[in-house]
Each structure stands twice: as structure tokens, then as C-alpha cells.
Specification:
Strand 6 and strand 7 form a beta hairpin. It is globular and about 30 Å long. The protein has a domain of 70 residues: Translation Initiation Factor IF3. By secondary structure, the chain is of the alpha+beta class. It starts with a strand and ends with a strand. Strands 4-5-7-6 form a 4-stranded mixed beta sheet, with helices on one face. A 3-stranded antiparallel beta sheet has the order 1-2-3, with no helix packed on it. The chain is built from 2 helices and 7 strands, in the order E-E-E-E-H-E-H-E-E.
Length: 107
């Protein structure tokens, strides 16, 4: 015997008193990177200095990935972005430790 189906107030399908589970969403993917700066093993402020020296070498709105494993870089690079009016796109953990800190050039 077929089960009755209806829509609830949120537009979800209800079958026999149970809500249908929404499909799991994919994890957000990092944006495509125009330049990667490898600052692994270097202490702050070196990752920021490297970023500041090279940010103008990519086109406007391009993304730079700063690879860093110094915990200070994890907070200092986004702070530098706010100070310099660039956009911190996100920080992604690296399998070997550290982060890929993505920055979009705004000007």
C-alpha cells in the first residue's frame, strides 16, 4: 500500500509523519588561486611581508594563497587584509599542518 505524502509549511515532503532529510551539501571549495606564497616554516611577520611584496603581481580580484604554519599568521594575515582593504576569503587547514590563507586583491 503506498504511503501518503504531503508538503509541510516549509515546503519539505512529509511521508508517514516523517520529514525527508535534505541532501547533504558539499563543503565549500577554496577559490581558484592565481599565486601561492609558501611561507611555511617562517615566523611572523615574514608571511605578511611576502604577501605585501607580491600582492600587486596578480590582477585585481585575483586570489593569493599564503601557506603558513605560524599561529600568528592565522590571525595577522586577515587583520592585514582589513587594514589594507583587501578581502580575506578564508583559511583552510593543510593536511601537513598550517593553513592556506586566501586573500583577494581589491585594488
Amino acid at each position: 500500500m503506498p504511503r501518503a505524502a504531503a508538503l509541510d509549511g516549509r515546503g519539505e515532503i512529509v511521508m508517514a509523519g516523517r520529514h525527508r532529510q535534505p541532501a547533504p551539501e558539499e563543503a565549500p571549495r577554496p577559490p581558484e588561486v592565481a599565486l601561492t606564497i609558501d611561507a611555511l616554516g617562517r615566523k611572523c611577520p615574514i608571511p605578511i611581508i611576502m604577501l605585501a611584496e607580491q600582492i600587486n603581481s596578480v590582477p585585481l580580484n585575483a586570489t593569493i594563497a599564503v601557506l603558513a604554519d605560524d599561529p600568528a599568521a592565522f590571525t595577522d594575515v586577515p587583520a592585514w587584509c582589513r587594514l589594507k582593504s583587501h578581502h580575506h576569503m578564508g583559511s583552510y587547514e593543510l593536511p601537513q599542518g598550517g593553513w592556506a590563507i586566501h586573500v583577494r586583491r581589491n585594488y
